[in-house]
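Chapter review: from sequence to fold.
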Amino acid sequence: MLLNYIKIAWKVLLRHPFYTFITLFGISLTLTVLMVLTSFLDHLFGSHYPETRRDRSLYIMQMEQRDSSLTSRQSGPMSFKFLTDYAKSLETAERVTICTFVNSSNAYVGSQKIKLNTKFTDADFWHVTQFDFLEGKPYNEQNIANGDYVVVINDDLKKQYFGNTTESVVGKDIDIENIHYKVIGVVKGGPVTRPFTYSDVYFPYTAPKSNYQKSSMRGGYVAIILAKNKADLKTVQDEFQSHISRIPLPGIQEGFKYATLTVKAEPYVENFIGTILDGGPGLATIFFGIIGFVLFMLLGLPAINLVNINVSRIMERASEIGIRKAFGAPVRTLVWQFIVENIFITFIGGAIALVLTAVVIHLINASGWIAYADLTINVNVFLISLVVCLIFGLLSGVLPALRMSKLTIAEALKS
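The token string follows.
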């Protein structure tokens, strides 16, 4: 029976090329936008280079301190010392890295100024992340203990500073803010959309201007905790919170009297969304309102338009409906037929959208709009797109099917 419905749907498509073109154009365009959006979200939140182990990583991004009346608060990154005391000491974690968010510096090649994104890290940074070293190696604990002036740079900075040379630049000097550093390694760069790992230059935390000696709790550092496996995440979180709970309350931090202190180790998505929700109910309402509006515009409006097209397309088959009803076809059978036909058409549009999405993603990756963009159509993106196709087919097919199936035999034969 299902195969017969699909054959009927195919013949209906061939019968009216104009309706077919309009329907497939609307479906494929809508699904292309949704697939590209899904790929971008996967790019933002998925486990990708160089954070390929996000599925077993926890992120510590900020500390929040509130006064006793809960009317004032301070929040932001932490000091290197604080994270060393409360995160580095975790026994249930495989590794913990402490690093800064992206900072900025300048380098000069002759009279040309190069604006740099910089990051201070510890040696564990190169074990928690999985950078591809094109040349050389990362700095290690010995380099840090010696206070060596060494840096790891990305391949883009290598081209800008040393030119399009095929020779290794390991061991060569690079001047940043009038300080001489020796290049110890060159990595393939990561996207700017991954702020925990993105940078042009990576310094050991003992390099000048890192402020790692700061003794207070607040500072400019964040941390990534790598669990031994995904199942250990809750155990690691519990241990970290037990460490935080030992901090005596109330306290005074840089003149601010706080009664509560909150620091969380969370998976990346929760960390990202939590930062938005932490802005208060107003910001959260705006955020989810925008998401709802975008989803309605991308999925709801096209579905409504296709409902009208489908009603017109099915109206031409009113006599067929009347005859089938006259021979005893139940309403459920008729509804199921039209839904299957619409889902079949939607999946044809989805196949077209898959090709268009691949083209759009290639153009985005090659355009340079996002440095080192690596949008892909992976298994997650494909499965989500498949579900979206199914939902879209149901949304645009159920209402016309119900409307036409409820026609009386007389009404259907007159149409």
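Two observations follow directly from the output. The mean pLDDT is 84. Residues 314 and 404 are 7 Å apart (CA to CA).
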